[in-house]
Design brief:
This protein has helices at residues 3-16, 21-28, 32-39, 47-57, 61-66, 75-81, 86-105, 111-119. It is mainly α.
Amino acid sequence: MEWIQIGERVERVRLDRKMSKEEFGRRIGMSRIYVGKVERGERGLSVDNVIRLCRETGVSADYILLGTFNPDDDPVTRAAVAELSREQIHIALDLIKRVADFIKTDGGNCALVHEVARQMGV
């Protein structure tokens, strides 16, 4: 298992939901200290913990364990596009693809993308 990458995804999920390690751990049945160890890749997750984490946060086990992302499984993405027309969704997806391509060709340096997002108020 790639515990460091799994831990990074767990941390991203927690931070996206603006939860402390203590609150996050309480909701999924882990101590604050254990959450920190998971996020650093020092400890793994049991199947029960993955299930609780996924139920509590709405993310898929595929995302936590494998890093695969399905926008249909992500409640944040669903909420973001809920009121968009079909055409607007296609525009947003095209923009996401272009940003992803830019990030990949920029060697992972995302400073410009972050600056543009900051200027947009994101």
